[in-house]
Amino acid sequence: MDSLSEQIRQMIISKQLKISMSEVSRVTGVSTSQLRYWEKKGYISSDQDEQNKNHYFSFPTIFQVFTIKVFLDQGFTLTMAVKKQQERCELHKIFTRFIADCIMEIKQTGEKQGEVKLGPLTEDPTKEVYAVITDDKTSLHVRNRNKADN
């Protein structure tokens, strides 16, 4: 695995990948006032800078915010949306585990194109799975592994 891929993996695993409240709001469509309210109620949490002014949210918390919003958009009350989100928090753990365990390397292969090496097949370790990402789609493939990777 190259060092950049390993650094990205470690950021996700260690929960050091954080974005500001305004970015969370922009990405999820949840207003900053809603985020503050949810934090005050204990539904989500953030890290704050030294002056306790800027809030920064980890990847797991962003996932929580997004999930709560989806349930709210489906017509659930905030209390029920939070409860349903908590029931689904296992999905985030599964997704994080997948990223940590399976993304071996990421490389750019052209303009708006890349490849993600996902690792060897369990049934045949001489072959590996990889994803090809183009401008309009992602596809999965299998190929023989390099001897250096074995």
TrEMBL record:
A Pfam family matched in the record: MerR_1
Entry's Gene Ontology molecular function annotations: DNA binding
Identification of the protein by name: MerR family transcriptional regulator
InterPro entries in UniProt: DNA-bd_dom_put_sf, MerR-type_HTH_dom
Gene Ontology BP term (one): regulation of DNA-templated transcription
Stored CDD domains: HTH_GlnR-like
Source taxon at top rank: Bacteria
Limits of the HTH merR-type domain: 18-78
Transmembrane segments: none
